[in-house]
Specification:
Order of helices and strands: HHHEEHEHEEEEEEHEHHHEHHEEEEEEE
Largest sheet: 9 strands, mixed
CATH class: Alpha Beta
Number of helices: 11
Distance between the termini: 26 Å
Number of strands: 18
CATH topology: Deoxyribonuclease I, Chain A
CATH architecture: 4-Layer Sandwich
Strand content: 25-35%
Shape: globular
Number of domains: 1
Length: 390
Amino acid sequence: METPELSHNLHSYYPELRKWRSTKNLQKSSFYKSIEPQLSQLLNYCEVGHYAPPIEKSLIGEGFRGVTWNLERGMCFDGIADILKNHPTLSKADIFFCPETDLGMARSQNRNVSRELAKALQLNYIFVPAYLNLDKGSGMERDVDGENSLGLHGNSIFSRWPIQNPRAIRLMNCKDKMRGREKRLGSQQAVVVDLMLPSGPLRAVTLHLDAHSSQHQRYHQTKTILDFLAKENFRGPTLIGGDWNTSTYHASHVFFTFFSFWRKVAMGPKRVVEKHYNHPERYFEKKLFGLLEKRGFDYKNFNELGKPTIYYHLGDERKNKNLHDWTPKFFQPIVNWSVKKAEGMTSLKLDWFVGKGIKPVPETQKVVGNLLFRGESVSDHDAIVVDFQI
């Protein structure tokens, strides 16, 4: 089964759409109501393709491998494809949970990142759009050549096993996506599929929680996903992977970000990096992880606890330019001072696996870093891996 590639004819409306600074006001307008049917159809579409060859029964083992990797839009496509094809650990995965995949964005060479990657790796895939981007992106992405052909951004799952029953869970926005320099229509969506493994169906979910959100909002986005899954008539095992953005920050507004930052400065930058940034489950994001356990999902045995998945180095121009999009420039020297106190580098644990009805294989939970292609990093996130049995 292969669905048609996503497309739309909304380009002519972009100049008018960019004039709006409030999603709420836009949605009340007669102009929005005239394009809403096409927009709704676009953002509620699941693009699916099957390119994986059948696996010989003699090659089927008792266990499986999952990989979660935020692909940072798929901007370094050749490097991502090379790593996933040849890396001694990642290439052996059965399922890839991949937030941040583009379709028709100038920053990723207007590729259909998910479909092209699935073809290159001979995998089955599903892509669900979260946003229709009215701009080329944020930070350094605005400086790339060309224009968006479609302007879609979303989340994907890739699998060696057949995909059935594709669906999506729309999450409530934590900030107005029409405010600020990067304007978007839509909201994050978690991708859900049933994968037909030899031992039976596995429900797989890729999520990407909002980066500009509070701990409370991330908790509620997670609850939305768990509530959706609980209502389904599915009695098999479930594996959820993705970028949970467990930054420990209240980042829905610059004011609250300042407050969160200074609180951590008072606690001691180096201590916060070691005790909290790399262990969000202990205190700042404890409510979210408590919810997972309450609903029967295990995170402790599915992850390399205390090992970060994203880093910020002093003088990182790429991340600095993104930071300047939503914080005043006078904040940069304060950030630099804090990072110096932490010996020139800070790190966060944002990416997680959680499972239910699944047995993780001990000592296979790991963060896989140093993912380079021709000497350059291909994503701002490290990948995470877990082997499991059902």
